[in-house]
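Duplicate of #3305? Posting structure anyway:
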């Protein structure tokens, strides 16, 4: 029985998707839930699995083509079994011969070896006869279309990286849909919000000592590494509940105040920046937060994040310090009204009790939408995070 292979239903915020690559070719056996084709949206990579056991019959839309929700990508034959090589080749040649009686044995053999049919191929021989060169050209075109969507770093060759001194190389690659969406969102944030940034600095010595004292015990108890991000997330959720306007968003002329903290953590992936959401972060323990961050980072590296992992969010935290950034002004993630930027830790001279001492310091930056948040609230919000991080016991005592 023939079964249609369709694009999954896309969320309202995603209009279409791009076919990246087919992992199976016509004539190959597939198992139910085995990966058939990957689609790229402006948020994540979607995997389309086989709906049943059988054999992939035909591919209707190839790599590089744009598709919409519920569109048919190809056909498969449920319950069919791939024949052994010799029998399969003979069977495939028979199919081709019956549909295209003018195809030569050499062309039939090549089609069978590649698991292809002549459907959709254009012959350049006399009277439109299909030649071996036509089949090879079709195969090369399919491979080229698939390579168009491979990340730029995977296309680099040694010659690209180390060109001959006499050469002036250039390379043009299409912008990925995720990168294009990021660019669109950044421009939207700059043009449609009254964005302002306030700064502060935090003494990380108490945090570093806390981590050193409890790192091994924390990991042994919870099976998760104790990092700085969990403390900042907890400090942010406490501050967000105290300053609800920082946790709010604009919807037209209405301000929506959220009674929960869905915190997005910016994670760098091979395809670009993604921001998975930790739902109800105010209810999560630090161990839960650390485990969630590790899990999301692994999923981002493997392109396993689902659209539901990236939807929503009331506040975002980004850490440019992992790349060595000393100071930056993070850009808002609309419709959120604020984003916290963490940076690298550096030892600097500071004044304490009228004495100059050396402390491990981190600059913090809070970008906010001035239409919702006034300067006083933004400054006190960031100062609250600073005070909680410098005295972690306040997180336990809620003071």
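Output from current build:
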């Amino acid at each position: 029985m023939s079964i249609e292979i369709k694009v999954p239903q896309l969320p309202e915020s995603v209009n279409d998707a791009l076919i990246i690559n087919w992992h199976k070719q016509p004539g190959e056996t597939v198992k139910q839930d085995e990966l058939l084709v990957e689609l790229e949206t402006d948020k994540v990579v979607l995997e389309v699995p086989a709906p049943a056991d059988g054999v992939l019959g035909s591919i209707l839309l190839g790599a590089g083509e744009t598709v919409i929700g519920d569109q048919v990508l190809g056909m498969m034959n449920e319950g069919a079994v791939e024949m052994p090589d010799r029998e399969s080749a003979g069977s495939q040649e028979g199919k081709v011969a019956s549909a295209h009686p003018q195809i030569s044995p050499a062309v039939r053999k090549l089609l069978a070896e590649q698991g292809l049919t002549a459907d959709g191929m254009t012959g350049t021989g006399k009277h439109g006869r299909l030649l071996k060169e036509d089949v090879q050209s079709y195969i090369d075109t399919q491979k080229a279309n698939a390579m168009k969507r491979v990340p730029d770093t995977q296309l680099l060759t040694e010659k690209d990286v180390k060109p001959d001194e006499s050469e002036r190389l250039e390379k043009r690659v299409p912008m990925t849909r995720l990168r294009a969406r990021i660019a669109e969102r950044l421009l939207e944030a700059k043009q449609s919000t009254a964005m302002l940034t306030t700064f502060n600095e935090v003494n990380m010595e108490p945090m570093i000592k806390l981590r050193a004292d409890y790192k091994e015990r924390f990991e042994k108890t919870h099976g998760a590494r104790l990092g700085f991000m969990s403390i900042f997330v907890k400090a942010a959720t406490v501050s967000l509940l105290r300053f609800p306007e920082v946790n709010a968003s604009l919807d037209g002329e209405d301000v929506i105040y959220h009674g929960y903290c869905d915190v997005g953590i910016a994670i760098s992936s091979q395809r670009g920046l993604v921001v998975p959401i930790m739902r109800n972060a105010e209810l999560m323990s630090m161990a839960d937060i650390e485990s969630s961050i590790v899990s999301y980072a692994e999923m981002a590296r493997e392109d396993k994040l689902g659209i539901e992992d990236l939807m929503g969010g009331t506040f975002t935290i980004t850490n440019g310090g992992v790349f060595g950034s000393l100071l930056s002004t993070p850009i808002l993630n609309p419709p959120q009204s604020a984003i916290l930027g963490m940076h690298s830790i550096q030892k600097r001279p500071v004044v304490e009790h009228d004495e100059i001492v050396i402390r491990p310091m981190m600059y913090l930056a809070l970008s906010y939408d001035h239409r919702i948040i006034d300067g006083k609230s933004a400054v006190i919000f960031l100062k609250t995070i600073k005070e909680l991080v410098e005295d972690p016991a306040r997180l336990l005592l809620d003071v």
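Confirmed duplicate; merging threads. The first helix runs from residue 85 to 99. The two ends are 66 Å apart (CA to CA).
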